[in-house]
Amino acid sequence: MHRVCAVLLAAAAAVASPALAFVPAPSASSARSRTSLSAEEEETCTIQVLMSDTGGGHRASANALRDAFNVLHETEPAQFPLPIHCDIVDIYTDYGPFFPFNQYVPLYKIMAEYSFLWKWFYEFGATPLGLWMNELALETFCFEPFKQCMTRNPMDVRRNDKRADMVVSVHPLCQDLPLKILNELDSNRASRSYGRKTPFVTVVTDLGGAHPTWFNDGADKCFVPSDVLKDAALARSVKEGKIVQYGLPIRRGFWGSGADDTKET
Description:
Layout: H1 2-13, H2 31-34, H3 39-42, E1 45-51, H4 56-75, E2 84-90, H5 91-95, H6 104-113, H7 115-125, H8 128-150, E3 166-169, H9 176-186, E4 200-203, E5 221-224, H10 227-235, E6 243-245
Parallel strand pairs: 1-2, 1-3, 3-4, 4-5, 5-6
Helix pairs in contact: 1-4, 6-7, 8-9
């Protein structure tokens, strides 16, 4: 499993800024605030993992990635000389401004109980109109609250003096808006459409089918677990060179041992 994370970082490092290489990114604010960072914060690479607890798979995948990132510094110190710290956040529950955004988890449970509701919302949300309405609503109401999330210090979430060096999404509704936020942050508010330097990677946690919102060509890399989802990414105009096909993230107890650790999972 940790091989997947090594490839994830190496793949991102090939396409973006030196922060990907993996040197900690500068503070999100001024030089004065950078001096307030501890030595541990200065010498740790940070990754923010965006998800929501709409089903068990998203957090399970986030935890599996975190566990694998945690061992990279120990197992491959030449390639990853600094320790890696993950900040996993349910961005909708913790930063959604009001209903329905901050109630996605209980709403998901209701729709899971009444499958016709789930079917209607899923299918309508996959139409051009549904995708447009979702993007408009999120940008209108959630941009500023989500920006607070993405500017928090991954090692001390009470502060916003250092952003994550890299962002990973393991949820279908964590692509479009986070990419726009990173564009604005990295371009010093010049644009929400371009200017991003912070690496951004999508790890698709569905297997046989995936909602269109999983796929955004603005991501540096899109990890998919199957041929079906590779085709789905291509259909959504994700460039083939950005698509990396691996299995689903699995928790540490299933990694295996010895030579099995080096196999792709």
